[in-house]
Amino acid sequence: MPETRRLTNSFESNTNFVNLLMDTTNEVRRLENLYKYEILDTPPDGSFDEITSLASKIFNVPIALISLVDSDRIWFKSYHGIDIDQISKDPGLCASAILSDSDDVYIVTEAKIDPRTLSNPLVVDLLELQFYAAAPLRTKEGYNLGTFCIIDKHPRTITAEQMSMLRQLAKIVMNQLELRLQSRILFKEFQGKNKN
Questions:
Q1: Domains of the chain
Q2: pLDDT one-digit tens code per residue, 16-47
Q3: What distances in angstroms separate CA 156 from CA 19, 59, 64, 67, 136, one per listed residue?
């Protein structure tokens, strides 16, 4: 019996190691995809700011963000209702929201009682947030680069129709990022041809 337990423990350890390795490999690929857009640390952009401002009005929330999850931080390409452009990745809800392999909306309806967020500094101190809903910014290759999220300081719910609208806003942002990437690629190709 001890031999069986040892083999089971060994198998579980190997399985955990393989899962960790796969997660690490996936994260490296996700970051490579993020970096190819060359969007991090770029100046504010009116078109993205218009979208977050509109989202704040549509959903009647004080805060709307376009976040990009880097290796050690969450950087906000656009932020409406707060005056910070990045936070550490550790307390960030956006980092949790991108873990799914789908375009599901990540929802926290009442953060002070949700076990996922009880000790989160964004809930307890910094923003005192209570409601958080985020649709992933998902590439064609299936990598979640960040989120389009809405935040409120009061508990609330979100309807299926609102979740659909949030997903649509995230897709609009991704379409803008894709267009900018393609424009940059075409410009570099054009420059390369003119040098020859």
A1: 46-195 (3.30.450.40)
A2: 443 444 478 888 999 999 999 999 999 999 99
A3: 35, 11, 15, 21, 20
